[in-house]
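OP here, attaching both records as promised.
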Amino acid sequence: DFETTSEDPMLAELVGVSFSWRTGHACYVPVNKHHQLKTVLDSLRPVFENAHIAKIGQNIKYEYIVLSNYDILLAGDIFDTMVASYLLNPAKLNHNLEEISIEHLGHKLTTPIEELIGKGKKAITMDLVDVERVSAYCCEDSDVTFRLKDILSKDLSEKGLDELFYKVEMPLVRVLAAMEITGVSI
């Protein structure tokens, strides 16, 4: 999970990234854009660009685009919990992490984003929030996303949707990201 300064991935600056590799475990790497950005990205580049390491995310297209802004290609198999949720229940109106977590894990996320950054005209950007609060928020997102992967993957398989998910939808995420990055001429 990435925390950034904007919901628009083309304008977003990286604030930090969290990783989860085991249920209940996650770590957060904060980024100070003035001093640590290059060091952090150089350290993480081998993980992001490693085709042998699968990546799991909620709306992973966002991370794909943000990384491209730093000349990093997100390689390897990807699993998007938002897309999986949509395929499993296309009539459902909302596929955000909170809703998916409640539905499949019975878990309500601890801190709504509005508690961190506010909303509307008074909203601030994530880089202005205390790093400990951002860390807790971001790590929970990664842990929940990691826990959802196996559940959603099993549900996709049971409903005969795994081929559609892995052969059509996940490759399409990369195509749509590339289209957003390139843009269109009007």
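Record two, same layout:
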Amino acid sequence: MITIHTRNFSLVKEALGQKTMKIEMYDGETVSCLLEKVRAMNKKKLKGLPIRVAVNQSYVDENYRLHNKDTVALIPPVSGG
């Protein structure tokens, strides 16, 4: 098992009620697996929400394999005006 640290921004933070989290995953799981776990925490608010992912401050795609103690930023679309 590995531990992933997330930093949740904007709508993700609102939906989960937490700015940061620790998530346990199996070694070798991908960003896609992480997003599935996160969306399952609040299906109503997170279903279909596009989320950009940065691992250790670099943007990655959903096939990126996560490693123990990675820091993952979960970034939904930004709006404002």
